[in-house]
Predict the structure of Transcription elongation factor GreB.
Amino acid sequence: MSGEPPPNYITPAGFAAMRARYDHLFGIERPALVEVISWAAGNGDRSENGDYIYGRKKLREIDRELAHLSRRMKAAKVVDPARQADRGKVFFGATVTVVDEDDVERTVTLVGADEADAGSGRISWLSPLARALRGAAVGDVRRVTLPGGDREQEILSIRYPDA
């Protein structure tokens, strides 16, 4: 196994959301904050100037997030799940319904790490469940090691977005 990280796959919608966040921070929030900081700096003693101190701290946070987003976008490999040729197997972007041995059904969509949101059923394609499901077809049973122990998951359905 090479020391290279796995590709940073992301859906077109996930990339657009990341780009929108970057553009909002860079084009709106950061310039407004710089304006507040320069106004606060003109108010004399900076050591006790709350607006100035808070503004500088907030600016550092925004700059850190901008740098992070920039790195993630540069590393991103946009993959459109609607273009998946083999729709009979689980790959990046698939929406999969599984059932475990207790007959608990769960529907998840395999997305990029930057757009994962388990609460809304979008799981990272690098998560234990997604890794176990990748390449599976309807009817296959896969064993998944989860924090609560090993669970068997049977694939009930696989869907991809329409082109």
